[in-house]
Every structure is written in C-alpha cells, then in structure tokens.
Amino acid sequence: MRLSLPLRMSGLRFRLSGAIERTNRPPIPQAYSWAEHYKPTPTRPLLDMSQGVPGVPPPKIFLDALGTASSSPSSCGYVPNAGELALRQAIAEEMRIPYGEDIDVTAGDIAITAGCNMAFVATIMTIAEAGDEVILPVPWYFNHEMTLTMLGVKVVPLPTDPDNGFLPSLEQCAKLVTPKTKAIVLVTPNNPTGAIYPASHIAMFAGLARSRNLALILDETYRDFLSTESLPPHKLFAPPASRGPFDPSSHHALPTDWCWRETIIHLFSFSKSYCIPGHRLGLICASPDIMPSLNKALDNVQICAPRPPQIALAPLLPALRPFVQSNNEALKHRHTLFKSLLPPKWHIGAQGGYYAFVKHPFIGIGATKVARRLAEEMGVLCLPAGFFGPGQSENVGPDERDVEDRWIRFSVANVSDDKVRHVCQRLGESEMAFGWETE
What we know:
Number of helices: 15
Oligomer: single chain
C-alpha cells in the first residue's frame, strides 16, 4: 500500500505545531505595514501612537549601575529561577508605596521573570492545561489571548460595555464560569482601553474568584501611572484591620478571612515604570505554595531573568521613585492635552495608563479601515479595536467583525506634546479627506 505524504509547506518537510498555527500573529507589525505606504515629508512626518513604549530613556544612575553590573564576571552566571533575592526584597518594600505601608507581601511571594509576558506565560503553564478555560475581558491585551491559544487553553471572552467605561461585568463573568474554568484575568489600568478599575470592582472579582475556587490573575503593569486619587489600586494585599469593617450585604467588601495568597496572582512589568523594555524584567507575586510548580515552568522557558538589570535595580528602587513619579505627571499632562485637543466628533471612552480608547466619527465604517487610512494617508499610526478581540486578523470577513466597532487605541506615552497637537489636527483633517459621513 502506498503511503500518502503530508502536504509540504513552503521550504519545509515537517509540520508546524497546530497550536502555533492557530495563534494569531502579533498585530503591531501589520499596522507598521500600513505606515510603509505613507510618504512622510519634513513638515508632515509619520506620527506613531501605536505601541505602548516609554517615551524617555531610563535615568543615568540606572544606566551607570547597569554598565557596572554587566561588566562584572559575577553577573554572567545563573541565578535561582525566582531571581535575585535583593531585587525581590526591594520590590516587596517598594510595593508599599502604591498599596499601603501595612501590606502583607514578602520576598518569598515574588518571582522575577524575563518581562511581564513571560510572567503570564509561566503563570498559565502552571495553573492550566490544554482544554481548560480562562476568562478574558474584551477588548483584551492581544499577547494574553495569543498565549492561551498557543498553550491550547480556551479563551472565554467577557464583553465590556463602552457605556460603562469598558469595565467588565461581574454578573456576566459569573455566568461564564464552568467546571473547566481555571482563572479570570484583569488588566488595570487596562491595555488597550486605558480603563482604570475601581478598587471596589477589583474586590468583587476577587470575591467571585475565591467563591468559585479560581485564580484571579491581576496584571498591573501600569499601576505606577495612577493618580493619587486612585491609590491604593485595591486593598487585596492589606490585612483585615486596614480594610475596614466587613459588611456582608456589600458586594464590594472582602470577607474577614480573606487571604490574598489563596486567590491572587499579581503580575507587574519593570518596562514601563523604569523605561527598560529591552532589558525584559517582570514579576509574579503569588503564594509561596505555587512557587515550586512555577519554578518548573520558569526553568524550562527562561531558567532565570537577565541578571545585570536585576543587580542594577535592586539598590536603586527608592532613588528611582522620583523618576517614576515625574513620568507619571508627564503622562497625566499628555492625557489632558490629548483630550483637550481631540476634534469634537472623536470621543474618548476610557483613558488611563499609557492609552486612550477613542471612538471615531465615521458612520458605518469599521475601526480597522479607519486606522489603515489614517496610517496610509494621514501619517497617524494607531491600533483599531479589532486587534484586541476575537478575529483580530485584518483578513477577518465582515460577518465576523462588527462594522459598528469604531474604537481605536492611541498611546500617549511615546509622543511629545507637539506631536499630540499634530495628531489631533490630522484627525480633524481626516473628516474631510476621507469623504465618509460623520456624526
């Protein structure tokens, strides 16, 4: 009998992983391909508000310390999976600034990872397996969805409502929980919407996760870009005495026997706060009970995070706090400027962290089509909401993407005030240039 051979892929005699084939490609390169069609001039350069990257370099004291650490032979070896103890101790202490002096977090709760994406990958590898389910609010951070798909974990979308500031609904989330559900994921301040979840809202989701024996994965990459009025972001890490009296009739209150280590897996990135995305440092803050299992995943995917930036950062975190606060103030100013200059027909649905989520004015036109023309014709690079939800590929058919989805993400972190002004001017120009009906 003649055996049939598998179809050859281009240049390959072997098959690629089905899971990786089902995983969406990163969408940002797609947006940059649109920008290649724009013809910039000295007076009309390309204005990039697409990617959430810091707009300033790290301070010299860090760069000097990094140079010293990098040139030391002692930093060339391995470090335990969980990272440099000095940095874990320092960040546990630093967490008292946003979360409160009396929080119950120690170095034993922390593992350092090669970026926050790695933190999410290792977390999912530790708590879920193929066929399990994880609930993600939509719009979602696309790397979260990509990770789950790559690992064979079913993504369960939790729609959010623009009229409610893109906050996920607790009631809708509860209905999505099944025996296969392993975790709920929240990102606050949110990527891509910028929505800042109130502490009471986070507490309700923590209560739901606890009652259903689920993990609540809380990605707080942008926590250092909250206003004073929004601090602390939540009281999940606080002991009962500092949370106030328990009111059993309130859905916002945590029970008196609440222990965050039973439910919460907190993720954080050093990339945004300290402006070092290329050095790949993130962390997982979770119960020491999960650490032996987590270290198995970390040993396979990273062994250890890069040592020189860990060594450089550990003694400097207190000295770098003014730099972090200064960046927060600059970002707050830029958000205010963007909102004040945005053309009247363009509406902000949510705003915070690095991002503003804006509804364009073109009736019956999907956000992907608008974002593409903005890049190709107006020289404004931004990302449509379709990149942050089911069917995020540009090639999704009209029956799979709502043409009334008119939301676009603008990153205000990596542009100057002058560029913000020019972006808003060009958005206004597009209303005439595109020839589409507007509101």
